[in-house]
Structures are given as C-alpha cells and as structure tokens.
Write a structure and sequence with these properties.
Rossmann fold; alpha/beta; 2 domains; single chain; five-stranded parallel beta sheet; 7 strands; 10 helices
Length: about 230
C-alpha cells in the first residue's frame, strides 16, 4: 500500500497572497501592529512563520502567544470561507489526480502541509479537493517548526489508523518547494516535485526530488510519477 502525502499551496491550489494578508490582519487585530517584516512563505510551517513574525514584531514566542495567533488565523480564515472560490483556484489536474488515486484500493492519500488543520480544510473544500484525502491523518503546521516532523507525524497516524506500518519506500511526499523535498528526504521517502510554485524544476531536482512534474495537468503522467518509485 502506498501513502501519498500532499502539500496544498501551489501544489493543489493557488491562493497567492492570502497567507500574508491573514497574518497582517492577525497581527493588527491581536497586537495593534502593522506587519513590517515579511517572511519567506514557501514550504514553511504555520508554527515557524508565527514564531518568526512574533519575534520580529517585538512579541514573545511563548506558546500562549503562538496559540493566540493560531486562533486568530482560524477566525479570519473562517470569515473568508464564503469567498474562497474567488480568492483562489484549484490548479490544473489536481482534482483529476486526486480522484484517480482515490479510486485505487492500494493508495491512501493525506497531507503534509504547513497549514493549520482548519485552514487546510478551508482551502481544499471549496473545490472538492478534500473528497479523496484523509484529513485526519495529515501532518500539519501546528505540530512543529520543522517540516520533517510533519512527515513523521502523518506516517505515524496513518500506521495507527490502518493497523500497518508504511515503510519510507512506500511513502510519497509531493510538493512545490525544496523544503517539501527535504522533509521527505529526511525520512527516506519518495519525493515528487511539482513546478507550479516559486521554484524551478532544476531547484526541485537539486533539493532531492526523485521526479519532477511541470504540473498535474497530465493525469496519467502525474499518477505514474507518484506511484512508479513507491514500493
């Protein structure tokens, strides 16, 4: 059985700029400050971004403050839910690849995403991309500042739910950034890059991708790339 762990932003959907806007609102609402430091977002976890922004704007990175930021981000995202189809789009081929893999009894699909669990659902549901993904066993950005912890977390949850181990060779981590590739490589998983984000195919290969796709638009090629190397 193969465990496929998807990144969300710029792999399955494009909500470019929405994270920056949500963090700007959260900082202003909670602390009355305007964002004057913009972190690098691709491949980062919500915990990592929150800690960086809190410290950059003179706040403590204590867990109480982190959780306050998480709660405010969830509240802001929840308010935006009616407008999500206008604020973003599903990337070409995402729905078809998810559905094709979802029809296979030998494949389990979940997430390794820097998003909070609630934000992950809010981003996927408007386009029906959550239908074939088991959100309960995902690795989310609330867990750790280090993305590789999200991979091991998802693998452990999948093993517990399905009553069997998923060896690293049977796990596919797919994403658009070098940090996605590094997180999978840390655990020895199969890594597949999708060059639909801010990084080129060459950058993804250099960061350890076993295969790189220009996009998910070619369903047959995408499914083959995801499953060919998995044991």
């Amino acid at each position: 059985m193969t465990l496929v762990l998807w990144d969300i932003d710029l792999t399955l959907v494009d909500y470019s700029g929405i994270g920056r806007r949500w963090y700007q609102k959260a900082l202003r609402n909670l602390f009355g400050v305007d964002m004057r430091h913009l972190p690098e977002f691709p491949g980062r976890t919500e915990r990592s971004l929150t800690i960086e922004l809190l410290t950059a704007h003179g706040m403590t990175e204590d867990e109480e403050y982190v959780q306050r930021m998480f709660a405010e981000l969830i509240r802001i995202a929840d308010e935006a839910r009616p407008d999500m189809t206008r604020l973003g789009r599903a990337l070409p081929g995402a729905a078809e690849v998810l559905a094709t893999l979802g029809g296979r009894p030998d494949v389990v699909q979940s997430l390794v995403t820097g998003n909070l669990p609630e934000l992950a659902g809010y981003k996927l549901a408007p386009f029906g991309l959550d239908r074939h993904i088991d959100l309960e066993i995902g690795g989310y950005g609330s867990i750790s500042a280090d993305r590789h912890d999200l991979v091991s977390g998802a693998m452990a949850l999948a093993a517990a739910k399905h009553g069997r181990e998923f060896p690293a060779s049977s796990v596919v981590v797919i994403g658009d950034s070098p940090l996605d590739m590094a997180a999978g490589a840390y655990h020895g998983t199969v890594t597949v890059g999708v060059a639909t984000g801010r990084h080129s195919a060459e950058e993804l290969r250099a960061s350890g991708a076993h295969a790189v796709l220009p996009s998910l638009a070619d369903t047959e090629a995408a499914v083959a790339a995801l499953l060919r190397s998995a044991a």
